[in-house]
Amino acid sequence: MDRDDLHIASYFRNLSQQDVECLLCPWHCRIRPGKTGLCGARENHEGTLYSANYGQVTSLALDPIEKKPLYHFYPGRPILSVGSFGCNLSCSFCQNWQISQGRPLSEYISPEKLVEMAVNCRPQGNLGVAYTYNEPFISYEYLADTAPLVAAEGMKNVLVTNGIVESEPLQALLPHLDAMNVDIKSMDDEFYRRLCGGRAQHPRDTVEAAMAHCHVEITNLLIPGENDSDEQIETLVDWAAGLSEHMPVHFSAYRPAHDFHAPSTPAATLKRAHEIAVSKLKFVYIGNLHLDGTTDTRCPSCDAVAVSRSGFQARPDCLSEGRCSNCGAGLNIIQ
Ligand code: SF4
Ligand code: SF4
Ligand SMILES: [Zn+2]
């Protein structure tokens, strides 16, 4: 780590012999001097914990908000999307494993510079900044420094996350966030332990806490034979519907990646998930595979297509201030 780039981590405590315990996420890594935590993004230097990926940008793009995916948050608008390196899970099916599980080349972009870039993208309709691609919570200090600057420009902060974070840092950051997409990879603890090195309860807790502060959508990647049984889908749908029948839920098609070589999710599985979910949820979407009629937002009251989508292009043709222009029903859309 370059000395000029040192940023002391929030949320850690000192132990004996210059060891530290990181308190940012539930793993509470005990980190020896000169070592990093499990996420690869927090380093112990002589008894002080530092953020190793502060401002270290590996990916930067002006993406459609639909690509996050967020379908109910300013549909049709682009957002400057930024990623760093590291992750506090190790999913064997990770699509972004080059940046989540390693430390690739990165470029330092200060919070001020990133905000300037976001402002410069305003003529293209840029909404703000989305922290995404790898796990953003492990860049906690960068988020905490950048998000207020983004907000001060009247722009939005969006997080795309695995939801693995301790409650105290989450609560401290939530007032600065406008929207989140949280991965609920499975409702089964066994799945999380075996394939991701995690626990199923943590992302659910994050969703429930975040809903009190900002707009939230859920993504469930369906992996054949691992989390795609009717029972597993029903359990997830029941939980989401219990939070709100207006919670947008995205079922996403898996494709072989990284260390995982199961065949891609068949269309039939996604159709079945859609069928199960629409019986209890108002806004259910299929991503990563085109299935007619599963990406549009339909008004649950009058069935008008409020937002039509093709690929990542969205047209809010029948939408006014987040409501159906045809009948006035609320659609849980922020616009
Ligand atoms: S944020 Fe990283 S270092 Fe800290 S407890 Fe989680 S995995 Fe360990
Ligand atoms: S949480 Fe996301 S980024 Fe992290 S390893 Fe899993 S799939 Fe990859
Ligand atoms: Zn309507």
Give a count of the beta strands, DSSP E runs of length 2 or more.
Answer: 20
Number of domains: 2
The CATH class name of the largest domain reads: Alpha Beta
Mean pLDDT: 96
Question: Biggest β-sheet, characterized?
Answer: 8 strands, mixed
* Count of DSSP-assigned helices: 8
Strand order of the largest sheet: 7-8-10-11-12-13-14-15
What is the C-alpha radius of gyration, as a whole number of Å? 20 Å
Walkthrough of the structure:
- This protein is an alpha/beta fold.
- It has 2 domains: 3-51; 56-295, TIM Barrel, CATH 3.20.20.70.
- Helices cover 24% and strands 24% of the residues.
- The chain contains 8 helices and 20 strands.
- It has helices at 97-100, 111-120, 140-152, 167-173, 189-196, 201-211, 230-243, 267-278, and strands spanning 12-14, 20-22, 30-31, 42-45, 48-51, 56-57, 59-64, 78-83, 107-108, 128-131, 156-161, 179-183, 215-222, 249-253, 284-287, 297-298, 305-310, 313-315, 319-320, 323-324.
- The strands form 6 sheets. The chain has an 8-stranded mixed sheet with strand order 7-8-10-11-12-13-14-15.
- Strand 1 and strand 2 (20-22) form a beta hairpin.
- Helix 2 packs across helix 3 and helix 7 (230-243) packs parallel to helix 8 (267-278).
- The termini are far apart.
- The model has no long low-confidence stretch (mean pLDDT 96).
- The structure holds iron/sulfur cluster (2 copies) and zinc ion.
